[in-house]
């Protein structure tokens, strides 16, 4: 079995995927056309050509511009179905999707329009491909804590459909400590908690996410490598890191994939997973992330299996429901 087939055969969970970041330019234009929305680019090719980023902010500016094409419930449904179809082809058995309601409510789209479309797709993906999924509401950290609290208020009637909360957008200058009260409230509500930390921000933001927000996983976390005590803690406590290698190269966190520290994190005993982040913008869905990283860093099939196992263990799915996935994983010869 070649590497690509092996990676696709691994039952895996995707734990770091912004659904708005799976909006391919073709669909962006289709939706913009059917909704009468003007885009800053005049063709699919010009849009792809604009995807040359120098850092996180240069990406976010385009990502928010592209999201303006999403208006109707069926747009969110179509977006998520296109993602699930690709995820299924990549061997994803379970996906925890981030969505950014503030990006849409700020444009006058109802919170329910976003949630209804995504949730309908989750049900359809389960029926069509047997993929299980969860929705994680992400707060935009460049906005105020008050704005986040107002968004949580809108989410309250729908908490049966929202599994957890996260923190994303511009990291530098917006530490987890800015959202102390918001996440305390989310914990009281029994929501699962994650946060982006240590993507561009310093290791201290990872410590804050753990100690002040009470996160169960760290999204990215690659800058933990700069702090030996934090590395030892992450290994000891087996806090999962949802690492996104192709994203990190596109956003210049690492200049080349060969320089990525994923293997260093893995060798230090951290619970590393591989994910795609914003695949439409970064040039690869989850299987591509596994394959390219394995080639660049010389990961063995045993290590790839470990990473897939980590993703299943770190998911927010009850233990009993994961059992069939572990059995399939164990049965896969290396
Ligand atoms: N990689 C990333 N970091 C922070 N916020 C994001 N929103 C979408 N992708 C993101
Ligand atoms: Zn992300």
From TrEMBL:
<feature type="site" description="Important for catalytic activity">
    <location>
        <position position="220"/>
    </location>
</feature>
<feature type="binding site">
    <location>
        <position position="18"/>
    </location>
    <ligand>
        <name>Zn(2+)</name>
    </ligand>
</feature>
<dbReference type="GO" id="GO:0043103">
    <property type="term" value="P:hypoxanthine salvage"/>
</dbReference>
<protein>
    <recommendedName>
        <fullName>Adenine deaminase</fullName>
        <ecNumber>3.5.4.2</ecNumber>
    </recommendedName>
</protein>
<dbReference type="GO" id="GO:0006146">
    <property type="term" value="P:adenine catabolic process"/>
</dbReference>
<dbReference type="InterPro" id="IPR001365">
    <property type="entry name" value="A_deaminase_dom"/>
</dbReference>
<comment type="similarity">
    <text>Belongs to the metallo-dependent hydrolases superfamily. Adenosine and AMP deaminases family. Adenine deaminase type 2 subfamily.</text>
</comment>
<dbReference type="GO" id="GO:0005829">
    <property type="term" value="C:cytosol"/>
</dbReference>
<dbReference type="InterPro" id="IPR006330">
    <property type="entry name" value="Ado/ade_deaminase"/>
</dbReference>
<comment type="function">
    <text>Catalyzes the hydrolytic deamination of adenine to hypoxanthine. Plays an important role in the purine salvage pathway and in nitrogen catabolism.</text>
</comment>
<dbReference type="GO" id="GO:0000034">
    <property type="term" value="F:adenine deaminase activity"/>
</dbReference>
<keyword id="KW-0862">Zinc</keyword>
<dbReference type="GO" id="GO:0008270">
    <property type="term" value="F:zinc ion binding"/>
</dbReference>
<dbReference type="GO" id="GO:0009117">
    <property type="term" value="P:nucleotide metabolic process"/>
</dbReference>
<feature type="domain" description="Adenosine deaminase">
    <location>
        <begin position="11"/>
        <end position="330"/>
    </location>
</feature>
<feature type="binding site">
    <location>
        <position position="278"/>
    </location>
    <ligand>
        <name>substrate</name>
    </ligand>
</feature>
<feature type="active site" description="Proton donor">
    <location>
        <position position="199"/>
    </location>
</feature>
<feature type="binding site">
    <location>
        <position position="196"/>
    </location>
    <ligand>
        <name>Zn(2+)</name>
    </ligand>
</feature>
<keyword id="KW-0378">Hydrolase</keyword>
<keyword id="KW-0546">Nucleotide metabolism</keyword>
<feature type="binding site">
    <location>
        <position position="277"/>
    </location>
    <ligand>
        <name>Zn(2+)</name>
    </ligand>
</feature>
<keyword id="KW-0479">Metal-binding</keyword>
<dbReference type="InterPro" id="IPR028892">
    <property type="entry name" value="ADE"/>
</dbReference>
<dbReference type="InterPro" id="IPR032466">
    <property type="entry name" value="Metal_Hydrolase"/>
</dbReference>
<feature type="binding site">
    <location>
        <position position="16"/>
    </location>
    <ligand>
        <name>Zn(2+)</name>
    </ligand>
</feature>
<dbReference type="Pfam" id="PF00962">
    <property type="entry name" value="A_deaminase"/>
</dbReference>
């Amino acid at each position: 079995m070649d590497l690509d087939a092996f990676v696709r055969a691994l039952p895996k969970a995707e734990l770091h995927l912004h659904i708005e970041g799976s909006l391919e330019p073709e669909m962006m234009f289709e939706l913009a056309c059917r909704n009468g929305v003007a885009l800053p680019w005049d063709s699919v090719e010009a849009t792809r050509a604009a995807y040359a980023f120098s850092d996180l902010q240069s990406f976010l500016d385009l990502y928010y511009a592209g999201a303006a094409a999403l208006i109707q419930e069926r747009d969110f449904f179509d977006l998520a179905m296109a993602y699930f179809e690709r995820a299924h082809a990549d061997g994803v058995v379970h996906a925890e999707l981030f969505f950014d309601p503030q990006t849409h409510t700020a444009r006058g789209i109802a919170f329910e329009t976003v949630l209804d479309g995504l949730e309908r797709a989750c049900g359809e993906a389960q029926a069509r491909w047997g993929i299980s999924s969860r929705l994680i509401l992400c707060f935009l950290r460049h906005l105020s804590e008050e704005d986040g609290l107002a968004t949580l208020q809108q989410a309250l009637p729908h908490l049966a459909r929202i599994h957890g909360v996260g923190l994303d957008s511009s990291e530098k200058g917006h530490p987890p400590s800015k959202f102390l009260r918001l996440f305390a409230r989310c914990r009281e509500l029994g929501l699962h908690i994650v946060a982006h930390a240590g993507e561009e921000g310093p290791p201290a933001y990872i410590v804050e996410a753990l100690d002040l927000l009470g996160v169960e996983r760290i999204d990215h976390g690659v800058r933990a490598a700069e702090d030996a005590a934090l590395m030892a803690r992450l290994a000891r406590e087996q806090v999962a890191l949802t690492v996104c290698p192709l994203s990190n190269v596109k956003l210049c966190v690492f200049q080349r994939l060969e320089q990525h520290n994923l293997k260093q994190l893995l060798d230090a005993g951290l619970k590393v997973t591989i994910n795609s982040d914003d695949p439409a913008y970064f040039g690869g869905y989850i299987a591509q992330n596994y394959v390219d990283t394995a080639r660049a860093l010389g990961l063995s099939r045993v290590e790839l299996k470990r990473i897939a196992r980590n993703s299943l263990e770190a998911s927010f799915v009850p233990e009993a429901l994961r059992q069939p996935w572990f059995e399939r994983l164990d049965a896969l010869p290396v």
